[in-house]
Amino acid sequence: MADSLASSVMSLRSSLQLLDSSIDILDSGVHDFPRLTRVLQTTRHFELLPEPTLQEAQQALLDEITPSIAHLLSVASNHVERLARREDSLKAKCELQEGRMSDKRRVSPAPNLGRVRTETSDASAKAIQLRRLVQKKERLKYAVDRLELQSRQKERELRKSMAFQ
Q: Any coiled-coil ranges, and where (predicted)?
């Protein structure tokens, strides 16, 4: 029985040696797995999307941006129109002032009627009255021009407000 036990022990030792060598072989084959998993891991540098998904994203972006762009364009347009109206108003005011300045240069100030002596002739009184009437006519003409310009501006504003509706 000692022989059979010795052969069993011997067989067990050889099995252990075989297992140790198998473990060593497996260990040498497996110890590099963490590095290999990192090396072999696929990294997506570019993600490929189906064309319908891409078109949906483009349309969503377009739907989101279009109202903002339209609003900004309308704000810019309104501002430009406001500046144009202001420019027209300033031009009209300038023309009015130029007209008044040229009238003052052409016609000297009329003398005070309260101080006109009774000795002055009828002709000089009529000349003074005529000069005042001419000045009044010029002032009225410039007032009418200014009112016409304001009227045209209000018509433009009305047309533009109707166009936006």
A: 130-157
Q: Is the pLDDT of residue 6 over 90?
A: no
Residue 117 is classified by DSSP as -
Token duo for residue 148: 């016409």
Sequence spans of domains, the chain = 55-109+121-165
pLDDT tens string 130-164:
888 888 888 888 888 888 888 888 888 888 777 76
Contact 163, 142 (CB under 8 A): no
Q: What pLDDT does residue 116 have?
A: 46
| Measured distance CA(22)–CA(16) in Å, rounded | 10
Neighbours of 88 (CB within 10 A): 15
User: Residue 45 has what DSSP assignment?
Assistant: S
